[in-house]
Amino acid sequence: MAAFAAHTGAATSLRLPSSTAILTSGGGGRRRRRWGAAAAASRVSTCSAAGRGTVVIGLAADSGCGKSTFMRRLTSVLGGEAVAPRGGNPDSNTLISDAATVVCLDDYHSLDRTGRKEKGVTALHPRANDFDLMYRQVKAIKEGRAVEKPIYNHATGLLDRPELITPPKILVLEGLHPMYDERVRGLLDFSIYLDVSNEVKFAWKIQRDMAERGHSLESIKASIEARKPDFDAYIDPQKQHADAVIEVLPTRLIPDDDDDDDDEGKVQRVKLIMKEGVKHFAPAYLFDEGSTISWIPCGRKLSCSYPGIKFAYFPDTYFGREARNT
């Protein structure tokens, strides 16, 4: 990520100068707004982002795969604590730090929760998302123009009044579809896909949706089964376009005859797949670049010796492209 920090230049002020561009959602048939039609009128003027413009990073993953947690860690690495916009909608999905703005692509749902039920589609289906608006607004931010971005309210399932997003140094697009639309994908300077196995995803989703959102186990299972065809069709294929893929899999360090399911649920195997030849990005390696290495640290030097830890690094291919696995 250091390469991106160096590439972005000086910080962009969050104050709006008199010539700030504002690109609003405009028309488009978005459903069940709780705000007046006047808010949808398009207004565009001009301004430019500071430094070398806005760097755009895309992060794709299924629901419940840790995108929000990953984003908080990423923004802290990029600089500053990520917080919700001050004075804005308390249900906003946007996070802002000193260096980055994180936009949740759920905000570009074209159908609210009721609308999706009426049409029989999930949020993963392209028909439930406004890719035209997504493309126009991401392009505008990258070109130095502010936008009035919609807000999808996860608590109510409705589309709330838009919020103002000004061009940051780094714009992170996290959600289901940052690489689905070819136009949006072409605006990304770097892309990441979180590829969480079904076993781990199920455990995480139960923890989040039961503990944090009050859903029942039966409803979570039904939701996962209903979403799987659309995940396989529209979300999972995006990983072939990603510059880096983070796979989260069940651990291999716990023996099959170990009956402690609690330990197994807390320990995962993580694989970082980095494609070669990506602009502004040099893949990481372990000890010796280009080698094949496996390393098990001394258990006595670990804060927790069980089940231990193992590192590996090796060149590989991923969807026909040279890559490195760590």
Automatic annotation (TrEMBL):
InterPro entries: PRK (IPR006082), PRK/URK (IPR006083)
rRNA-binding is among the record's keywords: no
GO biological process: reductive pentose-phosphate cycle
Domain called Phosphoribulokinase/uridine kinase: residue spans: 56-254
Cellular location(s): Plastid, Chloroplast
Gene Ontology cellular-component annotations: chloroplast
Pathway membership, UniProt: Carbohydrate biosynthesis; Calvin cycle
EC number from the UniProt entry: 2.7.1.19
Domain of life from the UniProt record: Eukaryota
PANTHER family, sorted: URIDINE KINASE
This protein's name: Phosphoribulokinase, chloroplastic
